[in-house]
Design a protein that fits this description.
The chain is 49% helix and 13% strand. With 92 residues, it is an alpha+beta fold.
């Protein structure tokens, strides 16, 4: 994610929530699964437990993330889990 896009998301969601979402996305496997405990997310992102839980609930409310069981989460309902946007080009 380039600096401008990250700044936009940070302004909308807050810097910590943006950081947590990026961490989860970067650590998910090719099927969207991530095996991690909330305490580990807190440690890795230097975020508080309430912030991590609030961020997970936000993703769940948008129906793009779910808790499969304790310590196992999954991104879902996304068209392409490994989507990598092309760099923007300016047309003359």
């Amino acid at each position: 994610m380039n600096g401008l896009v990250r700044e936009i998301f940070a302004q909308i969601l807050g810097e910590k929530k943006t950081e947590i979402i990026l961490f989860l996305a970067q650590n998910a496997d090719e099927n969207g699964f991530i095996c991690i405990k909330i305490s580990q997310i807190c440690e890795q992102t230097s975020a508080s437990k309430p912030t991590v839980i609030e961020t997970i609930k936000l993703l769940e409310s948008r129906k793009i993330f779910e808790r499969v069981k304790n310590g196992i989460y999954r991104f879902k309902n996304l068209k392409n889990l490994d989507y990598k946007p092309a760099s923007a080009t300016i047309l003359d």
